[in-house]
Amino acid sequence: MDLSKAADFLKHLETERVIAFLQEMNVGTLIHNPWFLGSMGAAALIALLMHWRLLLATILGITGFSWLLSYTLQQGTAIDGPASQTLLVFVGGGVALIMVIIYLLFIKTE
């Protein structure tokens, strides 16, 4: 068994390469692309119908976090105080997203 191919593959997962790849993809604008949203919606619907909870949780987590991050960056990252609307939306959306993922992965049995 030759491990050099595995080592070559793992070199693609270095942090600098992953960050460069994400910057090339321009993830912030990806959430506004209707093709991306449509494909994520179709994949989530298929995962829901086939009872693939892990895939559904992954899709909802990635898409939801992308939207939440995009919304927060559009509103500005300046925090006026503890009652900043952007901060409340980010924290509330993050908590709701985590609760949905926990429900899908650990609570829902059927």
UniProtKB/TrEMBL annotation:
Membrane-spanning ranges: 30-49, 54-73, 85-106
Organism from which the protein derives: Desulfuromonas versatilis
Keywords from the UniProt entry: Membrane, Transmembrane, Transmembrane helix
Name of the protein in its database record: Uncharacterized protein
Highest taxon of source: Bacteria
